Amino acid sequence: MRKALVIYLMSGSGTPELAEAAVAGGANLVELGFPFSDPLADGPVIRRAAERALAEGMRTRACLECLVQTRERVDVPLVPMTYAALLEAYGYERFAADAHAAGATSLIVADLPAGERPDLRRIHLVAPTSTDERIELAAGLTDGWLYLVTVAGTTGARAELSPALAPLVERARRLTSVPLYAGFGISTSEQAAAAAAFADGVIVGSAALLAAEDGPGALERFVARLRAALDS
Amino acid sequence: MSEGANGFYGAYGGRFVPETLVPALDELERSWRSALDDPSFASNLDELGSTYAGRPTPLTLAERFAPGIRIYLKREDLLHTGAHKLNNALGQALLAQRLGKRRIVAETGAGQHGVATATVCARFGLECVVYMGSEDMRRQRPNVERMHLLGAEVRPVEFGTRTLKEATSEAIRDWVSNVETTHYLIGSCVGPHPYPEIVRELQAVIGREARAQILEAESRLPEAVVACVGGGSNAIGVFAGFLVDSEVRLVGVEAEGAASLSSGRSGVLHGARSSLLADEDGQILDAHSISAGLDYPGVGPEHAFLRDTGRAEYVTASDDEALAAVAQLARTEGILPALEPAHALARAAGLDAELVLVCLSGRGDKDLAEVLAHR
Fold first, then answer.
1. Is A116 a catalytic residue?
2. Which residue in A51, A88, A142, A184 has the most chain B C-beta atoms within 10 A of its own C-beta, making it the best mutation to test that interface?
3. How far are the Cα atoms of A45, A128, A178, A227 from residue A5, in angstroms, in the given order?
């Protein structure tokens, strides 16, 4: 089966065009960051992107509008990724409903672990530190696929693919049959291919944001290289 | 006890953290419960309190500070390292040992918690990394130097406001990245469950002692108990001694530009729901205070709960009022308070109460440069 390639982009005025480029390069799913002022799970690249987006006025409503515009350009699943603070302020049910209406396929909330707000349908994350019980809980609740955090740490490039990924995939396979996508610390084609040897898909965030700084063409070429590495 | 299920105080508290930390918080909670059930934990802590930290701290009647009424100062400024922060740091260092963790990370604003953490790490031979905003490093230079002398590594935080909020975020990110080896020694009654409860219980010694001491001195309870509130740990500690005494008013004093209880809204920051300085989209706003220890847009969830239930009341004091209170206490009592408790002092005399207890949470040596610059 073809491996899934998930690209993370931060919401902003250029994002619909960037999303189109990512899909043209071979992305199967696009995560759209809704920026938060104090993102605990994020490393420096996504943090800086969030700061810039907030300075541009990318508040919740503007992000939802960005989602609508992105949906007009691409037909792959679109998944907002954000923090609980935004949902607390906007209302959890209202956020889910409005995001869906704007074209979102699901939702990721980085600081709302499995077990909290079970009514909110979303993609759950598990980490190398997660117990088997928590992996089972997250897999049972997750919306379609499970987000495997490859490292104990924040988002951002690492020199090597985390050695924690293989044992995490192995544990998760024993506990669930949902697709497993690996993210955090995957920035290069080599790392993507290595991660895809275990996982059903890979998620690239910080490195995609850096590529996107040089425009849609650069992002499309970057994504195409990842796609080629996954398909080879 | 106002503690609800899953670490909620009414609507406040909880655990809004990345999944990576959930198992560590579960482990911390188990270790904390087992420590509470283990008489040796309490006796170790008591012994450290008396032989190392200087407990019990005295209660001082400040007659010349407030003529005509009786204001008692609970002298946490006389605790080793100069502030109440050591109570919590000692207890959490014992917890870290039970958890088998040899590396400690902490955040600090005024530097008092950083110094307390560096101190206990030196005392127990633990590796210590303290995150501090570069703006706070500038205005609390002596505490940075103290931490260095104590063997801690102080990592400057250059993001955002370069103050306590960013330092806390960086400490949590460090913890996420090193959670297998590291204990996060949080400095206030904030953060994800079970931290607010742990810090409250470790600071409750202030209220226990103060209640017995004022009964001894006056044969009655105070009409009001006053403490400054940033994250709120000295306040929750002293309030804890009087929560059941419904006739005792509990008064928290926030910095005017960091009044997360007096002018905040419900939101999520640093792993918990509480009352915060935030905009209508949930984005956190900047706090502003001359006092680095109060310069924080959040507050412990239990304070938000005590506000909503009406058990405690929260007021504010300005930078200028705090500076005036520093000078007044220095000249009338020969006590140089830190800028943080100076906010509590600034409100203590105007409460329409004859007998008042103020938690003097720390001493003012660290603030000399800042106070002199504003003269």
1. no
2. A88
3. 20, 21, 16, 7
Q: Give me the sign of the Cα torsion angle B21, B23, B27, B29.
A: positive
Structure tokens at A203: 């998620």
pLDDT at B318: 98
| Between residues B293 and A146, the one the model is more confident about | A146
Taking any CB pair shorter than 8 Å as contact, residues of chain B touching chain A are 14-24, 159-160, 165, 169, 172-173, 176-180, 266-271, 273, 278, 280-284
Domains observed in chain B: 9-46+85-195 (3.40.50.1100), 55-83+204-373 (3.40.50.1100)
In B102-168, DSSP assigns E strands to 103-108, 127-133, 153-157
- CATH at residue A121: 3.20.20.70
Give the distance from residue A62's alpha carbon to the nearest chain B alpha carbon, in angstroms: 11
Model pLDDT for residues B74-85, shown as the tens digit of each residue: 999 999 999 999
B30 contacts: CB under 8 Å, gap ≥ 6: none
Give the pLDDT mean for A215-230. Answer: 98
Residue B65 has pLDDT above 70, yes or no: yes
- What is residue B292's predicted lDDT score, i.e. its pLDDT? 87
pTM of the model: 0.96
pLDDT digits (tens, 9 = 90+) for B165-221: 999 999 999 999 999 999 999 999 999 999 999 999 999 999 999 999 999 999 999
pLDDT higher than threshold 70 for residue B5: no
